[in-house]
Amino acid sequence: MQNNFGHIAVLTVWADNCSEQFKSRYQLGWSVLYVNKTTLQVIHLFFFCPQHGKGPPDGLGGNCKNAIKAEEKFRRHLPAAIDVYLWLEQNFTVVQSPGSGLFSIRKRIFRFVPTGIVPKHHIIDSTEFSGISTLYAFAVTKGPPVGRVYHRFTSCDCESCSVGVFDQCLNQEFLGAWSDRFLAVTEDIQPTIQEELEAQIDNQLDTYRRSNLSPFFVMHVQKGCDSPSIAMVTSESV
Ligand SMILES: [Zn+2]
Questions:
Q1: SS3 for 189?
Q2: Is the CB of residue 9 less than 8 Å from the CB of residue 40?
Q3: What is the mean pLDDT of residues 82-103?
């Protein structure tokens, strides 16, 4: 799930300008690694200008927060993320006033991503990226050289830029050429829950192997399979 995007080759992320959360060398470092770990070909990171006004997408998040606050104040506490998700899914998918035009919102769809499902590629160090605050468009493409980051003042969704052929931007005359520079990134990959589970089972099997108890039953999860199985194991078959 986390690495296979199916037929999607290009991921475009539009985000607020906030350097704490989004626009940082760590975020760029994550992108240069991530594009090579997934089936994606290009990742665009586009940022809104500072002091931009709030629009319907901001309102969408605000509406959900207010609805949850009201539920908590007048009815019941929603202690965990899963409770919030289930409540929203049951009570908040229908949009009362969808609006019109580009940002018309017809239905709210929620997805719950349990902790541990998304691998954490924690960037522990990355080359400085001076002048990052004055740029609003970044992009990375799959393949060597890893670490190459394209950047420009403005974003572009022309036919060339959208597929990662930045030197043939159709709007170059107005927007100027893309520049690039290289980031050297050090990462700390934290295992997913499934990987941890597999490691634990390997350890347990090892303990059983060294004990003289047999036969015994073990619950195991095969690599690449989500559901556990039960097997009877003897000292010969371990
Ligand atoms: Zn372009």
A1: strand
A2: yes
A3: 85
Mean pLDDT of the region 90-94: 91
CB atoms within 10 A of CB 26: 19
Q: What's the gap in Å between 8 CA and the centre of ligand 1?
A: 19
* Average pLDDT over every residue of 43-59: 80
Distance between CA 39 and CA 82 in Å, rounded?
Answer: 29
DSSP notation for 78-89 = --SHHHHHHHHH
Q: Which residues pair with 94 in a beta bridge?
A: 107
Ligand 1 center–CA 151 separation, angstroms? 12
Please report the pLDDT score of residue 59 as a whole number: 78
**What's the CA-to-centroid distance between 172 and ligand 1, angstroms?**
6
| Ligand 1 (single-atom ion) residues, CB below 5 Å | 156, 158, 161, 169, 171
Is this prediction's pTM over 0.70?
no
SS3 201: helix
d(CA 18, ligand 1 centre) in Å: 24
Q: What is the pLDDT of residue 22?
A: 79
**Cα separations (Å) of 163 from 9, 39, 40, 157, 205?**
8, 14, 11, 9, 47
Average pLDDT, integer, range 21-38: 86
Measured distance CA(130)–CA(46) in Å, rounded: 17
pLDDT confidence of residue 178: 97
Q: How far apart are CA 236 and CA 174, in angstroms?
A: 73
The torsion region of residue 137 among left (phi > 0), alpha (psi -120 to 50) and beta comes to beta
